[in-house]
Design goal:
Blueprint lengths: L10 H29 L4 H14 L11 H4 L2 H9 L2 E5 L9 E6 L6 H8 L5 H4 L4 E6 L9 H7 L3 E2 L2 H8 L5 E6 L14 E3 L6 H9 L2 E8 L6 E2 L7 H13 L6 E2 L17 E5 L13 H26 L6 E3 L1
Parallel strand pairs: 1-10, 2-5, 2-7, 3-4, 3-5, 6-11
Antiparallel strand pairs: 7-10, 8-9
This protein binds 2-acetamido-2-deoxy-beta-D-glucopyranose.
The site of 2-acetamido-2-deoxy-beta-D-glucopyranose has 6 residues, from helix 6.
GO molecular function, one term: diacylglycerol O-acyltransferase activity
Pfam families: DAGAT
Subcellular location: Endoplasmic reticulum membrane
């Protein structure tokens, strides 16, 4: 049986669903615009100079993007926030003279909490951290898609490639990055009520911190794994083996997920309305070291994992749904 939405839904619920739908349509819309602007000759007067500019001239995608506060403050993102709802819990003040590397966990299916809390100002991140400019980072391949690159940059999103990280962290006091450390691979473990992270083999973010003397800040996002259901794929199962193989070949983690539709609650690509609470932990200061030893890197990685684990346990009774314990791989 499919549960259909009632005919009489309050307007604010319809607007919230529309905001989430709009967000999910950004990538397909940009691809469609790119396709038409390339195949239809009357647009070439615009398309050709635009593409030349994006390929040969514009480097903002690896320099922190082009943050636009009108877009980041748009009311669409407040409807987006209220759909779940999404909130941001911060305990510590951060020093605007420093640079920070925020680590976001878990990835979930598509990191919707990370987008809402850090790419937009819908939960008031700008007020919570005055003087700190947080650039969420994403894969360089996203900046190869015409139009999408400019949309991403308008949120202050930038490339996660090493020189992109370096450029942002060197661009002045308070300039900071937010990285979803587990990456898309972690999405294969994004099951509701499940808290499984891919972290032990991730050392790049610690090396980055040493290179800039930037502080590491862990974030645990309760509920990020709850908004989509995913086909059972325990490690060792044939589904998981196929997924791992596809991921090795293409770099894309093929999570088999299901949410709800626009008019029903059981089937579709929209996320479920379930709450997401991102809790930000205490910063860990990392000294500036030109070539840190492996022991030093491991030591700070361990400090980070301990801090993340403490953060999880401190807040899990308050914010976790019926969830299991934190597992860090
Ligand atoms: C961010 O949002 C808050 C409200 O939550 C608002 O008071 C503030 O002006 C916004 N910040 C910026 C820089 O637009």
């Amino acid at each position: 049986m499919v549960r259909w939405i009632p005919a009489s839904l309050p307007l604010h619920r319809r607007l919230e669903t529309t905001a989430v739908l709009f967000y999910l349509m950004i990538v397909p819309m940009c691809m469609l615009f790119a396709f038409y602007s390339i195949i239809i000759p009357i647009f070439w007067g615009f398309t050709i100079p635009y593409l030349l500019w994006t390929f040969f001239y514009d480097t903002a995608w690896e320099r922190g993007g082009r943050r636009n506060n009108w877009i980041r403050n748009h009311r669409t993102w407040r409807y987006f926030r209220d759909y779940f709802p999404i909130s941001l819990v911060t305990s510590t003040k951060l020093d605007p003279a420093k640079n920070y590397i925020f680590g976001y966990h878990p990835h979930g299916i598509i990191s919707m909490g990370a987008f809402c809390n850090f790419a937009t100002n819908a939960t008031g991140v700008d007020e919570k951290y005055p003087g700190i400019t947080i650039h969420p980072l994403t894969l360089t391949s996203n900046f190869k898609i015409p139009f999408l690159r400019d949309v991403l940059m308008s949120f202050g999103i930038s490339s996660v490639a090493r020189n992109g990280c370096d450029n942002v962290l060197e661009s002045g006091p308070g300039q900071s990055v937010m990285i979803v450390i587990g990456g898309a691979e972690e999405s294969l473990d994004a099951h509701p009520g499940h808290n499984e992270l891919l972290l032990k083999k991730r050392k790049g973010f610690v090396k980055l911190a040493f290179a800039h003397g930037a502080s590491l800040v862990p974030i645990y996002s309760f509920g990020e794994n709850d908004i989509f259901d995913q086909v059972d794929n325990p490690k060792g199962s044939w589904i998981r083996k196929c997924q791992t193989k596809v991921m090795k070949l293409t770099g894309i983690a093929p999570a088999l997920f299901n949410g709800r539709g626009i008019f029903n609650y059981d089937f579709g690509l929209l996320p479920h309305r379930r709450k997401i609470v991102s809790v930000v932990g205490e910063p860990i200061d990392v000294p500036k070291v030109a070539s840190p030893s492996d022991e030093l890197i491991d030591h700070y990685q361990q400090l980070y994992m301990d801090s993340l684990s403490n953060l999880f346990h401190k807040y899990k009774d308050e914010y976790a749904s019926e969830s299991d314990d934190l597992k860090i791989h």
